[in-house]
Design goal:
Layout lengths: L3 E5 L2 E5 L5 E8 L2 E7 L4 E8 L5 E3 L17 E3 L7 E5 L5 E7 L6 E8 L4 E8 L3 E7 L5 H12 L16 E3 L1 H4 L5 H14 L3 E4 L28 H10 L3 E7 L2 E3 L12 E5 L4 E4 L4 H18 L3 E5 L23 H19 L4 E5 L13 E3 L7 H15 L4 E2 L11 H9 L7 E2 L8 H16 L1 H6 L1 E5 L7 E6 L2 E6 L6 E2 L4 E6 L5 E5 L5 E7 L5 E8 L3 E5 L5 E6 L1
Helix pairs in contact: 3-4, 5-6, 8-9
Length: about 575
Amino acid sequence: MAKYLIRVKRMKLDILSSDTTVETQKMEPGLKLLIFSSPGEIIFDLTWPMFDIDGQWYPLKQFDNTIHPDWVGPVSISPHRSAPVVSYYNRQGENRLTVAHDGLTAITELGAGVHEEDGTLRVRISAKLDALTVRIDERPIEYQNAIREVVNWWQRGISNYPSVPSQRGTVFSTWYAYHQDISQVILEKLIPDLVELGIHTIILDDGWQTDDNHRGYAYTGDWDVAKSKFPDFGKLVSELHENGIKLVVWFSVPYVGMASRRWQEVTGRMLYELPEERCGVLDIRFQSVIDELIGQYLEFIDKYHVDGLKLDFIDAFRQASTSPVFDRGKMQYVTVEDGLLTLLSSLKEQVLQRNPNFFIEFRQSYIGPLMRQFANAFRVADCPYSAQTNHVEICDLRLLSGNTPVHSDMIMWHPDERPEAVALQLQATLFGVLQLSVPPARMTKNQRQVVQRHLSLIRKYQDVLQEGYLRPTHPELNYPMVYATMDDTTFVQLSGGDYPVALNTKHVVICNSSTTKSTRVICNPLAEYQVTITDCSGHLTRRMHLINQHEATLLQEVAGITTIDIL
């Protein structure tokens, strides 16, 4: 039952927690802050009339753009899972309501949906905190700008992990290519092909630490190089460096395997076990666990001079129903979240002292605002062969991640795949950093030609694609038209529908990632344009001029590229 009720224009606020006070701060028309204070717990409902709303955006939505009923219940958000924001928009992509809060260091709950009894939209937020600020944005601005402004609001006083332009180049990942069946010989044989393709980073995934190739995590935790696979790991790293290739190495941070030597050492310092994976999850409420993890990573870095770490499964750090209760006499951190932030802060400080350009990759779902302090790569969660998932989740992550580089999940395809289908897999990653996981030696001649063309394209337009102003339109339809603009260049990707492209900059690139073989463009009738159209392999298919036209229809191959310049 509500303790008291407040109405602010269309919004109704029901405060459900005891001894809670709220102050309203108006920032500008349509934008306000609600500043709550309470002795230990804050719970409240916000209610609005449901007007002109067609879709919902939230950080881990994937393809779920639908409006939920309020009885679905809340989602749990933590520093290392998702982020506390939800946005509602209309069919024109205009913001109708974006709600976010700044309780970033704790576990909070956020539920949002339509109340079917009266057609209102209800948002419930609960947090075991003494203070919480909620940002409410009802301004009629583009939905992506409402989300971006939330991201900027979160970043007050937060120092993000540094990144440099070279870390936005294409990466080769070993995972889908080899899984655990990886070796020094395999990597050495990759070097000439990667150099030829201009790929300067390898991510060495799971398998380097074990002779066992049967998946699972039974052999994690010791983090010794498997000598049968890598007889001289240091020599391998040196050889890669001599060829201009950096090496990033995978670690599953929370896991200690039941077949590892360390298993007995961590007895009594586990959050829970995963019998099906033959491992357990470390309890980072113990300072000793944090010290041991950091010690292992630094020893590996100092011994082998690797260039980065892929830190996996961080979202597995959580208190389960079987986890031990907090023991003040043994544990140094009351919550898992406190321990994790200590671990990541300490590791960041130590690795950047060794190498200011050290690479750290995180993966969905630990992609929230605080995580940007500790990684310079946020990767899409595993989605093998799913181009559409890569496309959608790169756009989602770009909106949420500010200037932190966003990486695709690793790209793979069948050895007999058609060149156009290969191109579509690659093009799904246009607005992120491409992680390739098909060995060049396994590519057909035509597939390799497509890869070379794509790598040339994304190198040429890297600044526009990854750091330009990104405008993913129609989120309710999974972003069928995405713009990236920087200075006088616009790059447009079409992946569905019949949307005309306005030629508003001097140089426009149109990527046809759809099955449609024609594209409409809106021209300036006083301008003259040169149009160049190529197929997915870079072969010229036609060249033409447009003069004194308001609109034109261009014939374009599937996965083809069209460039248009004002003369």
